[in-house]
Every structure is written in C-alpha cells, then in structure tokens.
Specification:
With 567 residues, the chain is mostly helical. The chain has helices at 3-9, 27-64, 71-84, 96-108, 120-129, 135-164, 167-178, 181-187, 193-209, 214-229, 238-253, 258-287, 304-312, 317-330, 350-358, 361-376, 384-399, 412-422, 432-450, 483-493, 535-539, 543-550, and strands at residues 335-338, 341-344, 499-502, 530-534, 553-558, 562-566. The strands form two sheets. The chain has a four-stranded mixed sheet. Strands 1-2 form a two-stranded antiparallel sheet.
Length: 567
C-alpha cells in the first residue's frame, strides 16, 4: 500500500478520553472504517456493479444503433486487413484501433469482395449492405472489442485514482467514468477515439507507477503510448508530455546527485520513446509483414514545415503519408455549429463550450473541485502533473484543429478528470465524502435518464438530450445512428405515408425499408407528406431545405437526432 493510500485508509489516533461514539465520528472516518471491515467483498462487488451497468448500457446501445458516419470506413478497412493483409484504406489513421475492431469481425466472418473498387467509405458500405452480410450482426461484433477495451480502461481509472487518493477515491473515479455519457456513447462504437484516449491514460498511469520500479513500468508506459500513437495521430502531442513525466519520475526517485538523476531521467524518457516507436512499427507489421503500402486514393502533397516534419517521423511510410492526409483534411474549410450559429472554419473555444454542454453538471463540479484539490493538497501535488498535464496539452492541441465536430475529440478529458475529481476526497473537510457522493449520484441519475440516447446527451442546464441539436451538431447529436429507429417509427406510426428524407449518415435507408425521395431535387410545391431531416442537416439548412423546414410543422423526433415534419 502506498503512503497516499495509507493516509486515507488509516484510522485516527486514539483519543485519550476514550473512543468517540459512532455518531460523533466524522463522515470520512465512518465511511473508511466501514470499507476496511468489508473491503474484501464490498470493493470488488461495487467495481463489478459499476462496470456491469456500463457494459449493459454500451452493449444495448451498440445493438440498437445503425452505423455512424465513420464506422463503415473502419469496419471495411479492418476487414481488408483480415482478408488481404495490406494497408490500402484509411491511411490517415494507423492500424492498431482497427486491428482491435478486426478481432470482432473475425468472429462475424463476413463475406468480403476484395475486387470491389471504391473509396474507403464505399468499400465499407458495400461490405455492410451489398455483400450478403447482416449489418446489425456485423456492426455488433465490430463494436464488442471496443466495448471490452473501454471497460478495461475503467480498471485503469480505478487503479490510478486508488493509488493517488485511496480506495474510496478509486470507486468515485470509476463511478464517474462508468456513468460518463460521452465515454459510454463513443465506447460503444467501432471507432478510434476512446481506444486512443484510453491508451494515453494508461501510459500516464504507468509513468506514475514507475516511481516504484522504473525498469518495469517505463517500458510498459512507452508501449501504452505507442498503442495510442498506433491508433490515432492526434495522440502525438502526448509524446513530449509523457517523456517529460518520465524524466520527472526518475529524477524524483534518484538520490542527491542531481546530474546523475537528470541523466537517468533522460534515459527513462528515451526508453518510453523507443518503446512507443516500436509498438507503432509492430502494428503495421501485424497487418503486412512486408510493409507494403498501396493507398486506394492519392496521397496529397503538403509543402512547407508540416511536410518536412511528417517526413522526419521515425515511423513507417504509411504512417508518414497518413499524416499528410491529416494535414490536407485540416486545410479544408469545414463548417461548424455552436449555440445556433453556423460558421465556416473553427472556433478556438469550441471544445470547452461543447464539453460544458455535454458533461453532467455534477461531473463539472467535481472536475473543478478535484483539480483544485490536487493542486492545493500537499500530499497530492506530486500526482498533479500526471493527472492534469496530459489532458491539458491534448485539449490545447485539439482546440487548434479545424474540425469542430464533437466532444469525441476530447474524450480523454472525462477519463483523466475522473481521477482528478476523486481528489476532492483528500480535502480535510468533514462534508467532502457526502458532497462527493451526492454529486456522483447526480451524475449517475443524469446518465441513466438519457439511456439509450447517449450520443445526443446534454446536461439539464441546456435542456437535456432533446435540446442538444439546438446548440451542437454532428457527432454531438446526429451521427447517423438512428436510421434503424427511424424505420421502426415510420412503420408503426406513419405506415403508407409519403416520405421525403434528408439523412446525414453512412447507412442505406432502403436496406431498412425506408423508401423516400430527396425533397431538394423537386420543386417545394411537390413536397407533401412527411419531411424527415437529420438534425445536423436542420442546423446547416440553407436555401430550399430551409424553406421546406420553415413551411413545415414538427410532429415527432427519433432518438433526439432526426426530426419528422408534416407538410
């Protein structure tokens, strides 16, 4: 047991006047004493219950949602890895996350036509809808490995917070993680955001653990960092942060000789970097041992400093070329939507504002209080860089991006700050456990109330999931996930009616029995019956579509992501 844990769990010194009555004990002491008596079975039980409810929420969500916009790309690419052993599609994202998805696809054993020619999105849709496969079954199997990985990251949150604050803090952190709507929403999809963020979290925790044994934990931390880099390139800003933390860890552990301590710290950072680079190479070798790269689409040419930096990365050619694709994406004039305003380009404050909308109120309060606590409480200060610095740097980097598409680009924030929030329990205030417990319960209730519509979640101040589309768009609300629900709604409530559809997503409406026309291709006077529009398309509506919406009456919504109008 660490010194930090002992200080939280140890009983108070005996009072010379005799033991205090049970009712007179502080709330923290009563809670800790109860845990100490029953911890052999109570703590594992609580952990199991928290992870079980999270697993239930994610599996149920995964089973009911149709493919989101990005998922067919990753599923098609992972299937190509499985059958053709080549790096051809989706070079802008390294292979590891798709290899995780591939584990589920291997069980589903889909039919795959390697001779089909198209871009990466078309290949994914052809696999799902035109190859004789069941897209419901295939998507569920593709999502299950990501769900398992998300649950394992919950154990990392538990262990990290437990080492910093103690057992009660570990449970509080796990509860915040397990009830986070953003983590549940994106952890139940066959996408890369949660795996990449979770691997960065794991790396930070292992660097923290390296205080005990750097020879064991620094290589493991490097491997976890490499897993993040081999999943999404957005993890690259974490490299200098975790190398710096490795130096700090070894330096603090070394003796009085500062020069020798610094040299050892730099050596530790080098170990982290080398291990990370090795994992990236291994992920490509796992796809194709010959490291062939024949991209389906031409790789853009990027001049200037960015192009030169990409060429200097110590990674396979496919990784370096994928970075050029990412730079080309960043140069596009994307549209954003925030608080009712449609704009072209990006807003530096978009992600903080979106997090404010999409984070439960109790969680926001605990993040703020816990972050202050980890900086103010003396015995927690050594943990502050490990808990707060990685998400701060990653968030700052994400805020410079050109794609204001959703809080999934900052899903590492609820992961790291779940650990930070638990630090409130270390404050010497008799009501700290009660306040923490009440806020965690508030988070749980808010999360459970949104079931199973986690993707469009927003907190109570902003009107809940039904109102999110008024303030945000894209993967914050409407990512194409409710096409199946729309088909059920039309079949049960509006059977036989004429349907006009503007759908934003990767699904194929006709496969689900939705037979509709595009209202933008005919004169408005011919559009009668039901006008069905994805909420992201509503937010961005201009011209003819805006006229159609303004002259129609909303009568229903599906999953808080699609609105049905009557004309």
């Amino acid at each position: 047991m660490t010194r930090e844990q002992h200080s939280v769990l140890a009983p108070e010194a005996p009072d010379p006047a005799g033991p205090a009555p049970r009712a007179a004990l502080p709330a923290r002491a009563r809670l800790t004493a109860g845990l100490r008596r029953h911890r052999r079975w109570l703590v594992p039980l609580l952990v199991a219950l928290l992870l079980a409810q999270m697993a239930g929420a994610m599996v149920t969500t995964a089973a009911r949602q149709t493919p989101t916009i990005d998922e067919p790309v990753y599923v098609g690419t992972a299937t190509d890895y499985l059958r053709e052993h080549r790096v051809r599609y989706n070079p802008e994202h390294p292979p590891l996350g798709k290899l995780v998805i591939m584990a589920g696809i291997a069980v589903a054993d889909p039919r795959y036509d390697a001779s089909y020619h198209g871009d990466q999105g078309e290949v994914g849709r052809h696999l799902l809808y035109e190859s004789g496969n069941d897209p419901w079954r295939l998507m569920l199997w593709a999502r299950l490995p990501v769900i398992v990985l998300t649950l394992l990251f919950g154990l990392v949150v538990l262990a990290f917070a437990r080492e910093v604050v103690g057992t009660v803090g570990g449970l509080a952190a796990l509860a915040l993680y397990a009830f986070s709507p953003d983590v549940i929403a994106h952890g139940s999809l066959a996408t890369l955001d949660v795996p990449a963020a979770g691997f960065v979290l794991t790396s930070a925790w292992l660097v923290w653990r390296a205080r005990r044994g750097p020879r064991l934990y620094l290589p493991l931390a490097g491997a976890a960092l490499g897993a993040a880099l081999a999943t999404k390139m957005s993890a690259l800003p974490a490299i200098p942060v975790l190398m710096l933390l490795a130096v700090l860890t070894v330096y603090r552990r070394a003796g009085a000789d500062r020069r020798r301590a610094l040299v050892r710290g730099l050596a530790g950072a080098a170990v982290v970097a080398v291990a990370a680079i090795a994992v990236v190479w291994v992920s490509y070798l796992a796809v194709d041992p010959r490291l062939r790269f024949a991209p389906a689409d031409p790789v853009p040419v990027v001049h200037g400093l960015r192009g030169r930096l990409a060429g200097l990365l110590p990674f396979p050619r496919a990784y370096r070329d994928g970075m050029l694709v990412q730079f080309a994406f960043e140069d596009r004039p994307w549209q954003g939507y925030l608080f009712g305003r449609l704009y072209t380009g990006s807003l530096w404050y978009y992600l903080p504002a979106a997090l404010l909308v999409k984070t439960p109120l109790g969680m926001l309060a605990l993040w703020a209080a816990g972050s202050v606590a980890v900086l103010r409480v003396r015995r927690l200060r050594p943990a502050a860089p490990y808990v707060l610095l990685p998400p701060a740097v990653l968030l700052a980097a994400a805020m410079t991006g050109s794609r204001d598409f959703g809080t999934r680009y900052a899903v590492f924030v609820p992961m790291f700050l779940a650990v930070g929030a638990a630090c409130l329990l270390a404050v010497r205030w008799r009501w700290a456990p009660v306040v923490t417990g009440a806020l965690v319960l508030f988070v749980a209730v808010s999360s459970v109330r949104t079931f199973p519509y986690y993707l469009p979640y927003s907190n109570e101040v902003f009107g809940g999931p039904a109102k999110t589309h008024l303030r945000l768009h894209d993967s914050n609300v409407d990512w194409g996930q409710d096409l199946g629900r729309l088909a059920d709604r039309l079949a049960h409530r509006y059977r036989g009616e004429r349907v006009w559809l503007v759908y934003k997503g990767a699904g194929v409406p006709a496969y689900y029995g939705i037979h509709a026309a595009d209202p933008r291709r005919v004169p408005p006077s011919e559009v009668h019956g039901l006008l069905v529009v994805s909420d992201s398309s509503v937010a961005k509506a201009r011209g003819r579509l805006a006229e159609l919406i303004d002259s129609s009456r909303p009568i229903d919504d599906v999953g808080h992501s699609i609105t049905i109008y009557r004309r």
